[in-house]
């Protein structure tokens, strides 16, 4: 079980994209699905094994009724997908209709259920190590494949595609993976009980590699995410750690600014242009999504507008499933936030779940789609899984 959970945590996010980055470096983007689909299916299969092994925890949970809401929402989403495909005349989906429920199953439903059933108290170190080690691998891959562009003033990795037609990893992936790894490394450094020099060197090196990914990605959303984790770290730290964290944060500011300017990162420019470019055009997408919701407020309209999703999971939910869908899924988000706040107050070791949730929330408030929001629903699954720690685990 420990090995299974480590592999799953490793490939949930950064590890999967490390493999994809290597594939793209060989100009094999045309066959990328031969890697991505089997890998995701395999990880989903491993998750199903975990769910089966820990099936008692699936039912014997204090918050089982939230699992019912979760299930009903995704059944409703499937119905809306079929409705959009077969009853919306003159309208074409951006993907084949069955891809939406397939992605939702692999990226959201199965991951949520898997981490819902895992004994988080028992396997939290395994999960953290899986995330951190995969971030290290992606960092190594990024600096090896894209490090040459860092000092060329490209601003953002996506510019490479425009200038040389070279296929590169999505800069948003790099940026959020970098933030995710940085935050977890800081969390682990703050909780090292022994003077383990190897761990300190490994985690510090990982932070540097992840910061390079952050620079290559130059995402405004990921900057907001990491800024929001700072008060969380301070709030849930002991007094001595608060002072240390605040001091290190202040001292690191000039270093971070220098690194951004020296690398030619376009993050400062992008932040300054946010009002002018309306968040990269997201404002118009948000307006269209909200207008579509107002046209169909109860059950929602089509699951996409002209094949484009609004880059905001809340707007996407109301656009596609209306007030009904919002009433089904919003209690899960609200209860999840309340639960993890209370869990972390009682047990500071659960802070990493709260940090994951913040990063996932910010990411999918600014980019991505609800049916691929793995970084949002994995921590939600963990949160509701914590409630089941008092029950027997058939894997033991």
Automatic annotation (TrEMBL):
The UniProt keyword set, sorted, is: Ligase, Membrane, Transmembrane, Transmembrane helix
Q: Which InterPro entries match?
A: O-antigen_ligase-rel_domated, WaaL-like
* Compartments where located: Membrane
An annotated GO cellular component of this protein is: membrane
For this protein, the parts annotated as crossing the membrane are: 7-28, 34-51, 63-80, 100-118, 130-149, 169-187, 199-216, 222-239, 246-268, 317-338, 350-366
Q: Name one GO molecular function term.
A: ligase activity
Membrane topology, record value: Multi-pass membrane protein
Has keyword Protein biosynthesis? Answer: no
Q: Per its UniProt record, what Pfam families does this chain match? A: Wzy_C
Q: Which domain of life is it from?
A: Bacteria
Domain O-antigen ligase-related: where? 207-329
From the Swiss-Prot or TrEMBL record, give the protein name: O-antigen ligase like membrane protein
